[in-house]
Each structure stands twice: as C-alpha cells, then as structure tokens.
Design a protein that fits this description.
The chain is of the alpha/beta class and about 350 residues long. Helices cover about 40% and strands about 20% of the residues. Strand 3, helix 5 and strand 4 form a beta-alpha-beta unit. The longest helix is centred in the N-terminal third of the chain and has 41 residues. InterPro entries: Calcineurin-like_PHP, Metallo-depent_PP-like, Metallophosphoesterase_sf.
C-alpha cells in the first residue's frame, strides 16, 4: 500500500530522467489503485452512514435491527465489489468520447457566413497514460466534426512524452480553415511552460497569453493564461477587463480561459467564454464537490442576454484513467446569424 501511495512521486522522479516505460507502468498501476481506493472508501462511508442510522433508530424507537445489521464480511466485500465494478466501467467510459453540440445564435455573426463551427477540446492531459492511441480517439471525433476552428482550453500536456513530436503532428494534421487557438492550463506550468508552449505551437496552435486577435470578417478570439501563471512569471496578471475593453461591440468575441470563472467587470465584454478544468468531477461522487467550487461544472450557462459560459467536461483524464457518470467530451459549437 505504501508503494502505491509513493507511485505518483516515483513517476515524476523517473520522468525527469527521461524514462518512459517504467513510469508508464507505475502511473497506470498507481493511479488505477487510487481510483479503486476512492470508490472503496466512498462505498464504505455509505455503509457506515447506514449503520449509524440503524443505531439511531435503535436508540430512539428501542427497535431491534436484527438481520438488518451487515456483518463485517459484508461491510468489506460490498465496497470491494462496487469499487472493482466501477473501476472496470470507469476504464470503458474514459475511452467513450461523447460529442456535445450547442448552437448559439447572434446578430454579430455575419449573415453571409451561414455557420461557423468551432470544436473545443480541453484537459487532454497528454502524458504517460493519455498516450498516442487515446489522442487518436479524440482526434477522430474532432475530424468528424469538420471544424472551421479548433480550440484547446488548457491542460493539453501533462508530463513526460518521448514521442511528443509524433502526437503534435497528429494534431497539426487536423484541417481547420481559420486556425487553431489555445490557452494554458495549470498543468502546462507543472509540465514545464517552455516545453508545453513548444508542443502547442508544433501542434499548430496559436497560444493566446493575455492576447486577442481578429479572424477577419468573422470573430475576435481572446485568451488568458491560467492563474497558475502568476507563480511562474507568466502573463496571468493581465486583467480580462483590460484585455477585452475597446473591442468593437458589433463583433462576436470568444474568450478562452481554463477555469470556469468570470472575472468581475468582464462579463459584458465577451459573447462566449470557453473553459474546462473541472473534468465535470471525472468520478462521481466527486462531481458533487466540483459544483460547490464553480458556478457550473459542465455544460452551458447563460450569463446575461446573448452572453454565455460553456464548460467542457474534459477530453481526457487526470490521475485515475477512468471516469464514472462523466464521459469525456469533444464540444461542437455552431455560431449562426440570428437574434
């Protein structure tokens, strides 16, 4: 058990020495064990609550629970079976990429454009566990969507990859008439910001770090660093209000931001904020905790008339290579002219 607890630390140490095979085995084993343990503990906690309720009923109503009291063997084997079943299902769900389609109508989209299709990926966490074949499953859905623009809202890279150029080439090969755009997440800084930026650029992304640009005749794209950049000397301190102020009000503006938080004073300065970070909780019941931290953990949130925040629940996984009741996502956003 101690070895499993130390696995994530050993993985990072071995990564620094350029090793991949041994860290990959340790990462898969250690993080899978972590996921199973979390499910075991959660199930055992529910059984403990059940036992506590029986105890309260016994004291209040002087009722003999008798056969309703689970034996020690049952209280061990139920969490064990549940954690194994959830683990098997979770591994399958983590590979089952879902596409989510949202349509946003705005008079700011030029009428002659018809439809502008943006595809969003987020929190792919390419590394030891999220390798080339998992990336290919994500890109298959991206290619099927035939995007005009591809965006990544952070945590594209996570840790050591020896064949990093090969994966960058796969992303770069996706055709997008109006480009690829990305912002940093917290894990870009954990993996090494220089290396992460080099990978994103090799993959064909224009990384927006407190920057904005106009896609002529279409929309304005803006992006900010994750707040983690403040600790690494990045561009995280730039105010979103400062970045977005002065933009033409008749042009549709998209803000790429890793965390699904709307900065005070910026809400009326963009039309659509695309975010990620939450993974939708990744594993139920942790998805319930995420709801306490953010205004929305996944999906579309109207902020005001014609202004929206969309949170992608993650295209990959972090930590345990599994998901439970929160499948990975590739988002398709169709922008069309309308009121």
């Amino acid at each position: 058990m101690v070895f499993m607890v130390l696995c994530p630390i050993l993985v990072r140490v071995l990564e620094r020495y350029g090793m991949e095979t041994v860290p990959k085995i340790l990462a898969y084993a250690g993080y899978t064990w972590m996921g199973l343990l979390l499910m075991f503990v959660c199930t055992a906690f529910v059984i403990d609550i059940y036992g506590l309720l029986l105890s309260v009923l016994t004291r209040v109503f002087h009722w003999d629970p008798g056969p309703w009291i689970p034996s020690p063997r049952i209280t061990f084997f139920i969490p064990l079976v549940v954690s194994v079943l959830v683990g098997v299902y979770g591994h399958i769900e983590a590979l089952s990429i879902r596409t989510e389609l949202i349509v946003i109508k705005s008079p700011k989209i030029p009428e002659n454009v018809g439809k502008l299709r943006i595809v969003q990926i987020s929190d792919v966490h390419l590394g030891l566990i999220m390798g080339e074949w998992r990336l290919e499953r994500i890109l298959r859905e991206v290619r099927r969507a035939k995007p005009d623009i591809l965006v990544s809202t952070g945590d594209l890279l996570d840790g050591q990859i020896n064949d990093i150029s090969k994966m960058a080439d796969k992303i770069n090969a996706v055709r997008t008439p109006y480009g690829k755009y990305a912002v940093t997440g917290n894990h870009e800084f954990h993996a090494g910001i220089g290396r992460s930026l080099a990978f994103a650029e090799e993959a064909g992304f224009t990384v927006l770090r407190g920057e904005k640009l106009e896609i002529p005749g279409l929309i304005i794209m803006a992006g900010v660093d994750d707040v983690r950049a403040n600790r690494f000397g990045g561009h995280g301190k730039i105010s979103e209000k400062q970045l977005l102020s002065g933009l033409p009000e008749n042009q549709f503006t998209i803000l790429l931001k890793h965390r699904p938080l709307v900065e005070s004073g910026s809400e009326g300065l963009f039309d659509l904020q695309l975010s990620g970070h939450t993974h939708g909780g990744q594993l139920f019941p942790f998805s319930l905790l995420i709801k306490l931290l953010y205004p929305i953990d996944k999906g579309l949130l109207p902020l005001r008339d014609g202004v929206f925040l969309y949170v992608n629940r993650g295209s990959g996984t972090w930590g345990p290579p599994m998901r439970f009741l929160v499948p990975p996502e590739v988002t398709i956003i169709d922008l069309v002219h309308g009121g």
